[in-house]
Specification:
The complex is a heterodimer of chains A (249) and B (234). Chain A has 249 residues and is an alpha+beta fold. Chain A has helices at residues 95-108, 135-149, 176-181, 208-248, and strands at residues 28-32, 40-46, 49-60, 73-80, 120-130, 159-166, 169-172, 184-191, 196-200, 203-204. Chain A has a five-stranded mixed beta sheet. The longest helix of chain A is centred in the last third of the chain and has 41 residues, at 208-248. In chain B, the strands form four sheets. In chain B, strands 9, 10, 11, 12, 13 and 14 form a six-stranded antiparallel beta sheet that branches. Chain B has a four-stranded antiparallel beta sheet with strand order 1-3-6-5, with no helix packed on it. A four-stranded mixed beta sheet of chain B has the order 2-7-8-4, with no helix packed on it. Chain B is 21% helix and 32% strand. Classes of the chains: A alpha+beta (249), B alpha+beta (234).
């Protein structure tokens, strides 16, 4: 880690290293039903991040000892492809990947009606193809779309984004460099329709005013992402409708 | 009392459908008088304060009395294990197959039903604590010997059947085939002509794809008539 402020992350015009304004989100693109074999799937592009999420289940839980008698077990596997970062990443699971698997699972679990499928398993697979800061939040966003695409009953979709601090300013949606050299990083996930937060982590220091400001900023961005998720899920069905109605004319 | 959606609108999980007291049907939940959707689906609303959410995707969950099409995956000493396209594997005990009370242990069960065999069966018991129990002892149940099997999303089975069986009867009469519709998303098509069977499969796949677009029955009628006409012309 370099010392605070040793890198100019925000220039004099108030623009960030990738040319964004401080409160600007990177371009976001979501596609639902990306994979054929999975019960539900989604693909997300958030700036340079490229992530695939696949959901299987509810299905028979194996091994038998993981079965919970009155609800479904939710399992999550977050994995980064060896080519997803600049320096080749060893393909095995690192400490960080095991931790993120848990974090993503815990961010999504409150949204799932697990009690409707006792003794079953819901498996979430997240594969990072390209990483550039904020993969955990993008993974949560994509995995939630994949869960909905699988037809699994949910309370709400979960949308997620990180906020942070660089050169003393609050910034939205940190990229890889800002994540590495910035002063603070705070990923937030929530169910926007219900106004419930399912994940809130933070490293670095925030004053209470900064925290309030950062959280409000995250909530605003999450609502924007939520609209993209909604649109992605509905798009396929609306496209079929259009096609059918056109062929009838 | 406010309604936030139009009739036949596609909704996603967490989308608010209405506020207030409505007659609810389908995968919805209520929180502080607000009606939310649990899944991606199409809402049907009418003036009588009735909201019906029809899911577009989902797994089959067994229920007592369901007619299903299963595949034998294992032969045991006292019965069979059956894949029923659900999160739970089903059990078909020998006593639900053999006519007379017989000592199943002395028989070679794989001579009756072997791994890979398909059966039309009925769920006789399921309460989530144990795996579903099947029977093939009633009429029209048993091993499948001929026909074509189609698999679709189980939640779209009601669309294939239609209102009071209108859709299924239409396919049967126009294509002159027999259909056995399993609640678990598997449909057996039996016809004298393999071509007619293939046409029925195409029709069922079309229903699955376009189930959420209004006017399905009329559209399918036109489609089927065109198929039959095209076949006669050849």
């Amino acid at each position: 880690m370099t010392t605070k402020g040793s890198i100019e992350l925000i220039n004099k015009e108030g623009l960030r290293i990738d040319g964004r304004k401080v409160y600007e989100l990177r371009p976001i693109k979501i596609r639902a039903g990306f994979l054929k074999n999975a019960d539900g799937s989604a693909y997300i592009e958030l700036g340079h991040n490229k992530i695939i999420a696949a959901v299987y289940g509810p299905r028979e839980a194996h091994p038998r000892h993981v079965i919970i008698p009155d609800r479904a077990v939710v399992r999550c596997r977050y994995h980064m492809a060896p080519f997803s970062v600049e320096e080749r990443k060893s393909p095995g699971f690192s400490r960080r990947e095991i931790e993120l698997s848990k974090v993503i699972r815990e961010a999504l679990e409150p949204s799932i009606f697990v009690e409707e499928f006792p003794r079953t398993a819901i498996d979430i697979f997240v594969e990072v193809l390209e990483a550039d800061g904020g993969t955990r939040t993008a993974s949560i966003t994509a995995a939630s779309v994949a869960l909905a695409d699988a037809g699994i009953p949910l309370r709400d979709l979960v949308a997620s984004i990180a906020v942070g601090k660089a050169n003393g300013q609050i910034i939205l949606d940190l990229n890889g460099l800002e994540d590495q050299y910035g002063d603070a990083d705070m990923p937030v996930a929530m169910m926007p329709g219900l106004g419930q937060i399912t994940l809130l982590q933070a490293d670095g220091r925030f004053t209470s005013e900064e925290f309030e400001k950062a959280l409000a900023l995250a909530v605003k961005a999450i609502k924007k992402i939520y609209r993209v998720q909604k649109e992605a899920l509905k798009r396929r069905y609306i496209e079929i409708s259009k096609e059918v109605l056109e062929s009838e004319q | 009392m406010t309604l936030y959606v139009k009739n036949k609108q596609v909704v996603i999980p967490g989308e608010t459908i209405a506020y207030g007291k409505y007659d609810l049907q389908g995968p919805v939940y209520v929180l502080k008088q607000r009606v939310y959707s649990k899944v991606i689906g199409v809402v049907e609303v009418d003036e009588k304060k009735k909201i019906n959410l029809i899911p577009l995707k989902g797994k089959y969950v067994p229920r007592e009395g369901d007619l299903i099409i299963g595949k034998i995956v294992d032969v045991g000493i006292t019965g069979w294990t059956v894949d029923i396209n659900a999160p739970y594997k089903a059990v078909l005990p020998a006593s639900e197959v053999l006519a007379k009370p017989t000592d199943a242990a002395k028989l070679d069960l794989s001579k009756i039903l072997d791994i890979g065999d398909l059966i039309v069966a009925k769920v006789i018991a399921f309460d989530y604590t144990r795996d579903p129990l099947l029977t093939i002892k009633e009429s029209k149940l048993g091993k499948i010997t001929k026909g074509t099997l189609v698999e679709i999303t189980p939640v779209k089975i009601p669309r294939v059947i239609g209102r009071k069986g209108s859709m299924i009867n239409m396919i049967k009469s126009i294509l002159n085939v027999e259909l056995v519709v399993g609640k678990n998303g598997r449909i057996l098509v039996v016809g004298d002509d393999p071509l007619k069977e293939a046409l029925a499969v195409i029709a069922i796949k079309k229903i699955e794809r376009e189930a959420h677009v209004p006017g399905l029955t009329n559209r399918m009628k036109k489609f089927l008539e065109k198929l039959v006409k095209g076949e006669k012309a050849r």
